[in-house]
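Request: Show me your protein:
***
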Amino acid sequence: MRTGQAIAIVIFIVCLYFSWQIRQVLLLVFSAIVIAVALNRLVRVFQRLRIKRPIAIFLSIALLLLLIAGFFILVVPPFLTQLQDLATLAPEGLERLRSWSGWLRDIIPDQFVQETRNWGGLAEQLRSLTFNLFGNFLTLFTNSLGVLLNVLIVLVLTIMLLASPTPYRQGFTLLFPASYRPRVEEILQQCERSLGGWVTGTLANMVIISVLNAIALLILQVPLALANGVLSGVLTFIPNIGPTLSTIPPILLALLDSPEKAIAVLIAYIAIQQLESNVLTPLIMQRQVSLLPAVTLASQLVFASFFGFLGLFLALPLLVVTQVWVKELLVKDVLNQR
């Protein structure tokens, strides 16, 4: 091995080490890249309307902030109110469940029914847990400031990337040998197309799921039908895990009315999720990106293990980019070469 090659390997290992140490920062940068790619499509739409790029960028950012503000205004205040009501009414709901123990005994094993006798203690624990959550306001406030700071950093990075993307792309290609830089540029363009296609398909899925779930909850007369519908659409961004989490709030709200309504909500959500998985996603994503379900789930587990919640949230765009690089760099340029 030549001295130059040995030095290059050492530098590469050192770079990997420092990249791992600042992995959370790199994930924030990647978040900005994903948002910039998504907004760039909207910017191009404005530019086709003969709007100058700086104004188009301003309109795109303003629309994004408006959507985020609308989400929090629509979803957060009603849920906080319902959470307080839920803490008060939860023991009553659990008592109703216990009154249905005879019916449950016919369809659920006796061991599970035996555990329902402890629901009274569970209700007290739930009430105590709720009070503890509200009591830790200072910790919640501190964490919220950290999240807000990260959001601002991502927003600033997004604006910078949108305003002048070429220097950043050229700087990245300089990390590769001169003979391979045109090929890197091609791979980056493929990554941009794949990310853009994934964003388009995901947004379409989110809108459809929001509408279908809101309609189902309105028909079942569940409180906060619109807010729960929007929440389910947003959580669709996280496949497999997100839809499961989105069922919890409407089921709890329906449970305060009757167990039958809670079961109906669960059935409706499962039916809509099956429609989304087996019909909507294949139709929308077939021309955008191709991700195998098992690989998708495995990537969520891997990225969540290494990078925490942010890794789980960004698992799919990370998988899309990784898939492009593996296909183009490893398969085509290395393994398929004779």
Remarks:
- The mean pLDDT is 77.
- The first helix runs from residue 3 to 21.
- The CA atoms of residues 91 and 237 lie 33 Å apart.
